Amino acid sequence: MTQLATQSTSIRNRQDEELYGPSRIEDQPPQVARTVGVFGLFVLLASAVMAGWNAIRSTFGGESSQLPFFGQGWISFWTISGLAMLYFHAAFDRAREIRRGYMVLSWLALIAGGLGGLFWVLYGYWGTAAALVITILVGLMALALTACPWVLSAPVQSELAGLNEKDHPQEAPRATVSNSTNGPGFDSAVPVSSWKRIGLFLARWNSLIGTDVAVTRVTFAAAVLIALAITFSAILTTRFQWDMLPLVALATLVAGTTFLVTAAKHEFDVTWRQAGAYVLGLGHTIASAALLALMVRDLVVTSDSGLVTPVGLLAGLLGLLFFLAQVNLSGTDDDLSYYSAVVGLVLLGTLVAGLAVIRSALPPLSLYLSETWRPSPYFIPNGLLLLILATIQIITGLVTVSNNQMVAIFRRELLAYFYTPAAYLVLAALAILAAFQYLVWMSILLAAANNFQFREVFLEPIIRWYFYQILPVFALLAIPPFITMRLFSEEKRTGTLEVLLVAPVSETTVVLGKFLGAWAFFLVAWGIWFVFPLIFRFLMGQPFDYRPLLSFYVGTGFMAISFIAIGVFFSALTENQVIAAVLAYAGIFAMFFPQLLHWIFTSLRGSTGEWIANVIKEIAILEQYNNFLEGRMYLQHLLYHASIAVLFLFLTVRILEARKWK
C-alpha cells in the first residue's frame, strides 16, 4: 500500500510539472496575518469574558457588589481592537477555507444584527406580535440566501438544467464557474430571475436537505443561529428592556458588511460573490422599507416632532452602506446594481425628498387650512437631514448608472480604493482612532461632571472637546496624501496613463474625475469621526447641540479639497508613490505657515502686531477649523480653499498636457 501511494504521488507530481513546469512558485502562507488574527481572536474573547463578567456581577450582586468591574469604555476599545486584528487577517489571508469562513461569519453577523435591530424597532412601534412575524419572515429569506451557495454548488438536477435550456433556448453556452461537484454547463447564478426558478430552487434545496452533507449542515446551523438571534432579541427587548441592543446591532451590521466585502474580494467562485451581494441587497431593501415606513408615520401623525430621527436616518445610511458594498461585489454593470440604483436610490431618494418637503410644509400651511390643527415643526432638524440624505441617495444612484466620461472615471477611482485591502485598513485605523478619542472625550465629560471648576466643558458646542484635539487634526492632515499618492504616479509606473490619455477624453476630465473620486473617499473616511458623537446623541440619549456637526463637516470638506488638489498635483509629478506622498505632506504643512505667523504676531504687543494677526487669521488653518467647529462658516474661508484647489488642479492639467510635447 505504501509503494502504491508513493507511485501515485510521483505520478501526480509529474502531471503537475507537465502543467505548471518544474519551477512553479508556491504561495507562502501569510504567517504574520495569521498570527495577528489568532491574537485578535483572543482579544475579542477576552472582551466578551469581561462583558459577561459585568453582566453576572450586575445580575447577582447589583451596584453594591464588591467584585471588580470592567469599564465599558475599555471593553469597547478591546472589542474594536480585536475586530481590527481579525480584519487584518481577513484582508491578507486568501486561503479558501479562511475567506469562506469569514464570509459565512459575516453573513451570520449581518443576519443576527439585522434581526436584532429590526425586532427592536418593530417592538417599539408595533408591538411584540408584529415584531415576531416580520422578523421570522425576514429570517426565512436570510436562511435561503445563506444556504444558496451550497445548494447551487451541489450536483445539478435535471429539472434545473431543463429550466435553463427552456429559459435560454437561443443563447450560446454561457461561461460558468467550474466546481468539482458541478456538472458541465451548470448555471451558478443565484436563481431569482423568475418565480418559477425560485420555486425550483426551493424544491432542490428541500431535496438536498438530508442527502447532501454540506447543505444539511449549513441549513441547520444557519436556522439555529437565526432562531437564537430572534429569541435573544425578543428576550432582551421584552423582558430586560436592554437599551444597548440597537447599538450592538448597528455595530454588528457594520462589522459584518466590512468583513463580507473584504473576504468576498478574494473569492473566485461567482456563486459565493453573488450570494453575498444578494444578502446585502436584502439588507438594503429592508433598510429602505424601514425609512419609508417611518416617514409615512411622521406624515400621518403630526402631533409630535417625528420618529424618523434617529432610526430612520440610520436606516437610510445603512441602506446606502449595503448598496455600496453590494455594488463592490457585483460590479456596476450587474442588473442587480442597476435596478438597486434606480429603484432603491434614485426613486427612493426622490420620494424621501418629496415626503420631507410635504411634512415640513404642513406647519405653515395649517395656518390657512384649519384654525385648530397645528402640526409640530419638522424642517429643523428632521426635514433638513432627510433632504441631505435624499440628495446623497440620488447622486449615488445617478453616479452608478451614468455613462458620462467624468462620472465613469470618478466611479472607477472611487471603487478602486475598495478593491484593495488598504482602503479598509485605513477605515479600520480611523475607526480605532475615533473610538480612542471618543473614550478621551467621555473621560473629560465625566471629570467635568464631578468637578465644578470644569463646568465650562459643558458649554456648547461640547463637541469641541472631541474634535479640537491632536488626533482629529492629525487624521484630517494624514488622509489626503495617502489617498492621492497613487492617482497618477501608479498610472505612470504601470504605463496605463498613456492608454488613458489617448482615449477620447480630455485631460481636464481625467483630472476632475480622479480628484472627485479621492474627495468622495475622503468624505467617507472622515465621516467615521462623526459616528461616535451621533451615537452619543441619539442612541445613548445624551442631548447636546449637534447642529455644529453639519457646519464642521461641510467646512472641513471644503478644507480637504485644497489638500487633495495638492496631493493630485504632486502625484502627477513623479512615478514614485512615496515621493508623491512626502511632497503632498510638505505642501499641506506649508499651509500651516500662516497659522504659525498668527501665533507669533498674537504674542507681540502693540497695535501693529494685533492688526497683522487679525489679517493672517483669515487664512490660518486652525482658526478656520475652530470656526467651523463652533458653527461659523464664512464664505471667504470656503473660497480660500476652493481657489487653492482650482490652482493646483489647473497646474495638474498643464502637466498632463505637457506630456504630449515630450
Brief synopsis:
This protein has 662 residues and is mostly helical. 77% of the residues lie in helices and 0% in strands.
Number of domains: 4
**What is the mean pLDDT?**
80
Instruction: Describe the global form.
Output: globular
The major pleated sheet works out as: none
Rg calc: 28 Å
Figure out the total of helices: 27
Helix/strand class: mainly alpha
Tally of DSSP β-strands:
0
Order of helices and strands: HHHHHHHHHHHHHHHHHHHHHHHHHHH
Give helix % range. over 70%
Q: Which band does the percent of strand residues land in?
A: under 5%
Query: Low-confidence parts lasting 5 or more residues at pLDDT below 50?
Result: 1-9, 11-25, 157-188
Distance between the termini: 70 Å
Layout: helices, strands, pairs:
Blueprint: H1 2-20, H2 31-60, H3 72-92, H4 96-126, H5 128-153, H6 158-167, H7 195-208, H8 213-239, H9 245-264, H10 270-300, H11 308-330, H12 335-369, H13 379-401, H14 405-418, H15 421-449, H16 464-467, H17 470-484, H18 489-494, H19 496-501, H20 507-527, H21 531-539, H22 547-571, H23 577-590, H24 593-603, H25 607-616, H26 621-629, H27 635-658
Helix pairs in contact: 2-3, 3-9, 3-15, 4-5, 4-8, 4-9, 4-10, 5-7, 5-8, 5-10, 9-10, 9-11, 10-11, 10-12, 11-12, 11-13, 12-13, 14-20, 17-20, 17-22, 17-23, 20-22, 20-27, 22-23, 22-26, 22-27, 24-25
Any overview of this molecule?
It is globular, with a radius of gyration of 28 Å. The longest helix is centred in the middle third of the chain and has 35 residues, at 335-369. By secondary structure, it is mainly alpha-helical. The protein has helices at 2-20, 31-60, 72-92, 96-126, 128-153, 158-167, 195-208, 213-239, 245-264, 270-300, 308-330, 335-369, 379-401, 405-418, 421-449, 464-467, 470-484, 489-494, 496-501, 507-527, 531-539, 547-571, 577-590, 593-603, 607-616, 621-629, 635-658. The protein folds into four domains: 30-61 and 70-93; 97-165 and 184-246, no CATH class; 269-401, no CATH class; 408-662, no CATH class. Residues 1-9, 11-25 and 157-188 have low confidence and may be disordered.
